[in-house]
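Lab meeting, item 3. Inverse folding demo.
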């Protein structure tokens, strides 16, 4: 395929294919749906690990001590309804939270988790820090099994922060590129600076919205591949000297709400105003306004304001989309074994929509396994969206 056609395909990618947009969640869901989802997950979800993701309101909405108190209250409300055998395997501190809570209060938040919930022997802590943050990253490396992700930002020197992180002793350092922080032709240049520091993982920004950005997005992907980085799920690429996860297309791996491919699917609990959760096949969101959320907490509720329960067909589509996103492959035999349905019968129209991708070499059939190849990595969203019942509405 010529370069112009590739750029056009990149621009046509749906923004939301793994999960629905916030606007698609139903406001009729609320607290009752959240509680029902938790109870159902307690009974049926195996294995039992949990991911906790903490975020903060808009800067200036709350004092640091108030924010910590609210997060602890919400954590306790979750703990009260979770089964005792649910163990926290991963904790994510989002960049907005790290910006607003000093290191001492972050430590108090982390110390409260094992007091409220079971944890695996050594939970993974993922700390996300925006480029330009004044917080010394060296203080954050002392929290144990800690991975740091630098979030690119126009107002900060992301590569400089990454260099500091590389010297601070984190278990891994990652870099999240941002279109806003890498205007037009600056994206490849910024990526070259990042690659010189050899982070364990690099993530491309969301799909571009302009032709100029599309060209540089493609150029950035080629730089990643030339440097030996390989896709490991979603838009994330891992350094070539690190053992890659098995990409067998059998659907074991799962891309969570944070955009990170995990070895297995687990419940994802968002804590903080505007945070989203994935509980089994239920997605829900906490009230985004700080004052409204505090009122919910005062009433003994975590503040769930919207949600969505996936239908049986959406659950099947989600299984396929997750496999394509995480493995860049789809094992049709594994799908049939799990669901007692032939994939080509269940998604007859979807298979027809895939034909152009076979023709241009982005998709290959290897026996009963579909594999995304070559520049198809750049447009995995388009390929995966063919399996969504309302794929055209997601563009």
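The presenter then showed the designed sequence:
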């Amino acid at each position: 395929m010529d370069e112009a056609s590739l750029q056009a395909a990149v621009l046509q990618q749906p923004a939301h294919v793994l999960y629905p947009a916030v606007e698609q969640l139903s406001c009729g869901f609320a607290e009752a749906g959240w509680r029902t989802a938790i109870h159902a997950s307690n009974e049926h979800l195996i294995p039992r690990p949990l991911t906790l993701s903490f975020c903060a309101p808009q800067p200036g909405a709350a004092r640091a001590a108030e924010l910590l108190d609210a997060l602890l209250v919400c954590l306790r409300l979750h703990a009260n309804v979770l089964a005792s055998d649910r163990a926290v395997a991963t904790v994510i501190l989002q960049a907005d939270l790290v910006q607003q809570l000093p290191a001492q209060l972050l430590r108090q938040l982390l110390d409260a988790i094992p007091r409220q919930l079971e944890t695996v022997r050594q939970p993974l802590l993922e700390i996300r820090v925006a480029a330009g943050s004044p917080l010394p990253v060296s203080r954050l490396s002392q929290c144990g099994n800690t991975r740091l992700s630098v979030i690119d930002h126009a107002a900060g020197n992301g590569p400089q922060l990454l260099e500091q992180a590389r010297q601070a002793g984190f278990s891994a350092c990652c870099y999240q590129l941002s279109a806003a922080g890498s205007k037009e032709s600056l994206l490849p240049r910024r990526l070259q600076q990042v690659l010189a520091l050899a982070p364990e993982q690099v993530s491309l920004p969301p799909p571009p919205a302009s032709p100029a950005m599309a060209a540089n997005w493609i150029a950035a992907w080629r730089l990643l591949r030339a440097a030996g980085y390989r896709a490991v799920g979603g838009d994330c690429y891992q350094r070539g000297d690190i053992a890659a996860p098995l990409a067998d297309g059998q659907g074991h791996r799962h891309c969570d709400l944070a955009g990170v491919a995990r070895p297995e699917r687990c419940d994802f609990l968002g804590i903080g105003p505007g945070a989203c959760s994935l509980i089994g096949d239920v997605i829900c969101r906490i009230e985004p306004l700080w004052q409204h959320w505090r009122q919910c907490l005062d009433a003994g509720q975590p503040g769930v304001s919207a949600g969505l329960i996936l239908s049986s067909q959406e659950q099947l589509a989600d299984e396929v989309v997750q496999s394509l996103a995480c493995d860049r492959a789809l094992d049709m035999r594994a799908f049939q074994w799990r669901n007692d349905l032939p994939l080509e019968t269940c998604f007859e129209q979807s298979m027809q929509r895939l034909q152009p991708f076979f023709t241009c070499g982005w998709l290959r059939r290897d026996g009963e396994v579909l594999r995304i190849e070559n520049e198809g990595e750049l447009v995995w969203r388009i390929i995966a969206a063919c399996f969504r019942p309302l794929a055209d509405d997601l563009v």
